[in-house]
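The authors assume throughout that readers already know how a fold can be written as discrete tokens. Each protein is reduced to its one-letter sequence and a matching series of backbone shape codes. I therefore recommend that a typical entry be quoted early in the introduction. For illustration, here is how one protein appears when written out as sequence plus structure tokens:
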Amino acid sequence: LASARRIIITACGTAMHAGFMAKYFIEKYARIPVNVEIASEMRYADMIIDENDAVIVISQSGETADTLAALRLSKKRGAKVLSIVNVAGSTMARESDNVILTKAGREIAVATTKAYSAQLVALYALGIFVSEKRGTITADKEKSLITELKKLPVKIGETLEKVNESVKSVAREIFNGQDVFYIGRLSDYATACEGSLKLKEISYINSQVYAAGELKHGTISLINQGTSVVAVASQRNVFSKTLSNIAEVEARGAKVICVTDEKMSENISEEYEKIVVADTIEEFKSSLLVIPLQLLSYYTAKLKGCDIDKPKNLAKSVTVE
């Protein structure tokens, strides 16, 4: 990875959203170009892949058919493959050149939560390691990143307690609705993607996600009076832009729920409903911001009487196309 010309991350669904987060982190610190590819597309696209590329495949089960096909295509074209999986004896783990086991334990529910959190941590740690090998971060920065990474379990626990009641309240507002929109920028957009997917998966509400800066390119026409919009807003360098997007949807009648952290919450108007997570460094915020989004899906599905662990039409491991 440290000597690669480019890193290609390929996965499906939730694992792909973890890949988006890794792209931002690895490019920032290791200074390597990172492509994130949908595995079901990559296996059929005539992508340029060779021995100068490193490929990371991500899967909870290690048996996802499309991701496994992308792995085999990458190896056939000479790339080295690293898999990030939760199942030690899986096909993906066996066929990769190297493997990182997330060790999240067995997850019963079809809609993954803890496996996603474990994938994020594995990718953050990998990014730090590669950056150190490439000499693109100082020893002090490496140490501070690892120190903050080790604090995430406690901060996730704090966040669960902190947001639980406010998330329940929001769930009561949206569970009878037809549509929910999620918006965010940069890594907040990747977090919004995962939040939107979770709501679709287990509550069956039509949930769509948009990069906040793209709203005026057509999608803002979908906002009507009372439409629920979940805005993930934590990235300092685009925070004012996200606030502008929030104001735009609010002006068109949207009911806005802002998901943010303690520091950035101070800059958001009290007229908006806020769900506030614990603080961490900007690079690791998604690990906390995703918690209320997962809970929102859970409580919404519960109010609707849906089968939370086994949603209709879905399987835990997608082993066929």
Summary: The chain has a mean pLDDT of 90. The chain has eleven helices and ten strands. The two ends are 29 Å apart (CA to CA). Residues 152-174 form the longest helix (23 residues).
